[in-house]
Design a protein that fits this description.
CATH architecture: 3-Layer(aba) Sandwich
Bound molecules: hypoxanthine
CATH superfamily: Nucleoside phosphorylase domain
Structural class: alpha/beta
CATH topology: Rossmann fold
Helix content: 25-40%
Radius of gyration: 17 Å
Number of helices: 5
CATH class: Alpha Beta
Length: 250
């Protein structure tokens, strides 16, 4: 068993990671967002990959999700925790808080979203009824309790194309569709992970109220501030969840 961690906006480095090696990786789908960082958290082997690149230069629609997931799998990852910055549609989710989604609606387009497109093999379908790995969600839930961090369990994640934020009308539509949080990176990542049979779950960090859910427009400086606080919680959560996942006591 090995955990891969995909860091999102605000998490280009994992401060509690002891780095052993950085490996440039090539896949049949191109290069992942950055060299794969092999190291340990609390003595357990993990692989870290910053989704937007080391210097946060790759926008959500340009991330090579196929290469990232393929590289993690080939590097030995069996489980993947993805960290995703989101806007809150459901006003119960405060900025800076963490959410553990259980469902996804995909509104993205023009992204390579499957490994099954170009092979001569028969068309392959995958079950995606529950898009996230229940076992890993449970570990994260318990890790949050141990860490003393509030983690809102259960939310529908709307994946939008970006890189712009949404209009008020778009957010109203997502809300009518049943979405609680909105982000730009949840898909096709989760679907590709399932195709590779990786046990994948997302921890969403609320960066802002979605468009129209607070007075005024979206404040980018505020987002940075809340992401910083939120990512501190993610680090603490991972520190407690990783020993649980590996079956060792902290
Ligand atoms: N919309 C989409 N993606 C996001 C948002 C948002 O409001 N905040 C952070 N990522």
């Amino acid at each position: 068993m090995k955990l891969g961690i995909i860091g999102g906006s605000g998490l280009t480095h994992l401060r509690n990671l002891t780095v052993q090696e950085r490996r440039v990786f090539r896949t049949p789908y191109g290069e992942p967002s950055a060299p794969m960082v092999h190291g340990t958290v609390g003595g357990q082997d993990v692989i870290f990959l910053p989704r937007h690149g080391q210097a946060h230069t790759i926008p959500p629609h340009r991330v090579n999700y196929q290469a990232n997931l393929w590289a993690l799998k080939e590097s030995g990852a069996t489980h993947v925790v993805a960290v995703n910055a989101v806007g809150a549609i459901n006003t119960a989710f405060a900025s800076g808080s963490l959410v553990l989604p259980d469902q996804i609606i995909d509104y993205t387009y023009d992204r390579e979203h499957t490994f099954f497109g170009n092979s001569p093999e028969p068309v392959t379908h995958i079950d995606f009824t529950n898009p996230y790995c229940e076992m890993l969600r449970e570990v994260l839930r318990r890790g949050a309790i141990e860490a003393g961090i509030d983690l809102a369990v259960g939310a529908t994640y709307a994946a939008t194309q970006g890189p712009r934020f949404e209009t008020i009308a778009e957010i109203r539509r997502l809300e009518r569709d049943g979405a609680d949080i909105v982000g730009m990176t949840g898909m096709p990542e989760a679907g590709l992970a399932r195709e590779l049979a990786l046990c994948y779950a997302s921890v969403a960090v609320v960066a802002n109220p979605a468009a129209g859910k607070a007075d005024g427009e979206i404040d980018l400086r505020e987002i940075e501030r809340f992401l910083e606080g939120g990512m501190g919680k993610v680090r603490a959560l991972l520190e407690h969840a990783i020993p649980l996942l590996y079956g060792v006591s902290a």
